[in-house]
Design brief:
Length: 117
Amino acid sequence: MKDKLPDAHADFVFAVMGEEFGLVICLVLVAIFAFIVLRGMLRLLREGDMFIVLAATGLCFSFGLQAFINMASTLGLIPTKGMTLPFISYGGSSAMAIALAWHAAGADASGRVEDLL
């Protein structure tokens, strides 16, 4: 399968993981992404500043949506979009953007916004 996929190392890494490691690892990966997003959202329930809640919610949602779009397009549920799987797919600019977004969300949620400046 890796020879037939156009970008097996980047856009379709979820398909390669499914072929190499099976359904259990794919379900574990889905559970990890769901845990990260839900943990971020649950942390925001205790936050009082509305700007921080909205900013971090948008960052958590975009992270989860990017993972969902990549996995759904890999499974053939939606047309392919060319989005990488966060923190897993090959691609330096995507990984850097996601890392900076999570740093911003973490600094917002912890109340240390001055760390970003």
